[in-house]
Every structure is written in structure tokens, then in C-alpha cells.
From TrEMBL:
InterPro entries: FAD/NAD-bd_sf, FAD/NAD-binding_dom, NADH-Q_oxidoreductase. It comes from Glycomyces sambucus. Its cofactor is FAD. This is NADH dehydrogenase, FAD-containing subunit. Coiled coil: none annotated.
């Protein structure tokens, strides 16, 4: 009987992991199923570009997994029962698994602010980015982006560059780019001046309305369009599954990306809470998705085959921030949280980021690319050990 591996989510973490498992594990021993709400692979890091009017190349996931032996299910996950080892889909199907890789990513965090869900737009998913795109195409007046993190900065600069007729502003609770080194921050501020973006620092938005937003200090911001970019949160499915999670709904995992509460469950990407090499939480990001997927995949293969488990460095090396299509900054960090003095700015940084993103996407959507890989077999005793561990919970 084949060992059933289910991968929930086909973003960077899930798609790469599924393809790698298919290449490295013998097809006679495993049945790999990937479930994703979108039929296409979504380049999430470019969704601010989609919102501003860019059409991205379509990458059909069923085609991505052709010839890999991976079964693709186009459906949304509505529930996970960690104890019963099942995942329920919106088409009514219930998938049973022996090993689960949870990689459903994250969604926009509204922080309980009134009016965000009713009136604000965001770019945390492709459907949301397309709704914002439609809004911007017919919008007049002011656009307010809330959030001074990477997503907020990339969204506001892209909107300002692509829609020069709109009055664009950004509100942030702190200092814009305050975590950047002096040279990178100076370049960031000059880009905002060049694009005519008004900046409201030390501004806490406490309500979003149909006419704009209200701040804690009593100021009212008139805006026909409010874009909410004040952070991300894990999908609530994990918290309702019985898995141990943190306050943000991320699955608590060990260094190998195994759930600390349920054997046979692994997590990767934004859905997993783990620490970077400097001891600080690894941030939700595309880079983190890659590192955690590599570690989770290595652990799954090692646990099933009895082979050694490689140690992937869980480091966050820098912030690469687009400032429109032909401008960017890359701020190097020391392992995850401490800013260094080194940065790259301008067209060079923009070109470097584009190259990195294209290379990352190519590797993810071509799981059969490269030389053949020797496929590992699952030993009978390992299969029995996994079954026994699963049965214990």
C-alpha cells in the first residue's frame, strides 16, 4: 500500500516541496496529492504589480505536475482534522493522509480594525489584487495605503507610478523605512518624493470607512480607495485543526518543521512558526518559504526512508523592496534581524530582484528540470513506524 502524502497549498513552499518529493521518493511507495484553491501557480510577490495593471504569465498547476506522478486537486481547503488525519475540501471531498505538509500560507491581518473587511482592499491573494486593479482603473481622487512594511511600500510605489493621476499616500505607525541603513532609507525617501507620495508617519489607523480612514489622534483621511497592507496572519484553518499554533495562527514546529503536537504533520512557509539563525522569528516571506520548504522536505524524506536529515540554514539575508518597476533597494541583514551597512540601490537592485524572482519561479514550476535523481525507497519498518506514530494521536 502506498504511503499517502498530502500537500495543502501550492505556493512557493508547497509547489517546490511536492515536486521535490516526487523526484526523490519512489513512485511505487508514495501517492502525493497537492490541493490548491487556485488552478494556477500565483507569483504572490508580484501581486502589487497585478493590482497596478500588469498581466502575469499563466502557469497551470496541473501542467506543472505533469509527468511527476503528483495528483493535483483544484479545490479550497475548508478544514483539517489533525487527529483523524483528514482534510476537507470545498467540493465535499475528504482526503485522508499518512503524512501532511501544511503550506496554506497567510492572508491579510485586519487586527480587528473596524471597516477593514468591509471597505479596504488588499494584495494578499490574486482575487483580491484583481479587485483592487478594477477599482484603480476607474478610481478618482485619493488612494491611502495603510502599512509601512515591505508590502505597503511596494504597493504604494507601484500604484503611484502606474496611476500618476491619483493622489497617493501612505500611513504607517512608525518611521518609514526606519529599519533600513542610512543609504537605503535615503534612497527610499527620495523615491517617495519622486513619485509624489505623501507620507504620514506615527499614524495609527483605527477605522476604515467608505470615505477613507480615521486615525487614533482624531485625523480623518479622505480616500476613495484604502489599501490595507498592515501585516499578514495565518489562515484560521490551522488553529481549528487541533494542531498547536501561536497567537498569529502559525503552526508550532521543531527545527525540522515537524508539528510539535502531531507526528506526521509538517509545516512550511508563512503557516509555520520557527526561529531564524539569530534566534528571532523567521518573517513571513518568499525567502522563508523556500528555506522552510527545503527543511520540511528533507525531514519528510528522512523520516520515511531512514536516511539522514539535512540541516537547512534558516536565515533571512535581507529586504529586497521594489520602488516601482525600475527602482528598488536591497538592504542586507545579519542572519535575520540586524541591519548591516551594505545595500544595493536603484536600477541595479531592481534588475537583481527581477532576476532572483524569475530564477525562483523557474525552479518551482519545473519540478522535473535537471538530471534524473535516484529515487529513495520507503523501508517497511519505517512505514510501520510512521503508521504507529500516527495511530498514537
Amino acid at each position: 500500500m502506498q504511503h499517502r502524502i498530502t500537500v495543502l497549498g501550492a505556493g512557493f513552499a508547497g509547489t517546490w516541496a511536492a515536486g521535490t518529493l516526487a523526484r526523490r521518493l519512489h513512485r511505487d511507495d508514495v501517492a502525493i496529492t497537492v490541493v490548491n484553491a487556485e488552478a494556477d501557480f500565483v507569483e504572490r510577490f508580484r501581486l502589487h504589480q497585478v493590482a497596478a495593471g500588469t498581466d502575469l504569465r499563466r502557469r497551470d498547476l496541473a501542467a506543472v505536475f505533469t509527468r511527476t506522478g503528483v495528483r493535483f486537486r483544484h479545490a479550497a481547503v475548508t478544514a483539517v482534522d489533525a487527529a483523524a488525519r483528514t482534510a476537507t475540501l470545498d467540493d465535499g471531498a475528504v482526503l485522508e493522509h499518512d503524512t501532511l505538509l501544511y503550506a496554506l500560507g497567510s492572508t491579510v491581518a485586519d487586527h480587528g480594525i473596524p471597516g477593514v473587511r468591509e471597505h479596504a482592499f488588499h494584495v494578499a491573494g490574486r482575487p483580491a489584487a484583481l479587485r483592487l486593479r478594477e477599482r484603480l482603473d476607474r478610481a478618482h481622487g485619493a488612494v491611502l495605503v495603510v502599512g509601512g512594511n515591505l508590502t505597503g511600500i511596494e504597493a504604494v510605489t507601484e500604484i503611484a507610478e502606474s496611476h500618476p493621476g491619483l493622489r497617493v499616500a501612505l500611513a504607517t505607525t512608525g518611521e518609514l523605512g526606519g529599519w533600513l541603513g542610512p543609504k537605503a532609507r535615503g534612497h527610499l525617501l527620495r523615491a517617495f518624493d519622486r513619485l509624489g507620495i505623501a507620507v504620514h508617519e506615527d499614524t495609527e489607523i483605527t477605522e476604515v470607512t467608505a470615505a477613507g480612514a480615521l486615525a487614533a489622534d482624531g485625523r480623518a483621511f479622505d480616500a476613495a480607495t484604502v489599501v490595507w497592507a498592515a501585516g499578514f496572519a495565518a489562515h484560521p484553518i490551522a488553529a481549528a485543526s487541533g494542531l498547536d499554533v501561536n497567537g498569529a495562527g502559525q503552526i508550532l514546529v521543531d527545527r525540522q518543521m515537524r508539528s510539535v503536537s502531531h507526528p506526521g504533520v509538517y509545516a512550511a512557509g508563512d503557516a509555520a512558526f520557527t526561529l531564524a539563525e539569530d534566534g528571532e522569528p523567521l518573517p513571513m516571506s518568499c525567502a522563508s518559504a523556500g528555506f522552510t520548504a527545503m527543511q520540511a522536505t528533507s525531514a519528510i524524506m528522512g523520516d520515511l526512508t531512514g536516511a539522514g536529515i539535512g540541516r537547512t540554514s534558516l536565515a533571512y539575508y535581507g529586504n529586497h523592496i521594489s520602488l516601482g518597476r525600475k527602482d528598488a533597494v536591497f538592504q542586507a541583514l545579519h542572519l535575520g534581524s540586524r541591519t548591516t551597512s551594505w545595500s544595493v540601490r536603484g536600477r541595479v537592485a531592481a534588475g537583481l530582484k527581477d532576476l532572483i524572482l524569475k530564477t525562483a519561479v523557474h525552479g518551482v514550476v519545473h519540478p522535473t528540470y535537471g538530471l534524473p535523481v535516484r529515487k529513495r525507497r520507503i523501508a517497511r519498518e519505517r512505514r510501520e513506524a510512521v503508521a504507529a506514530a500516527n495511530a498514537a494521536y
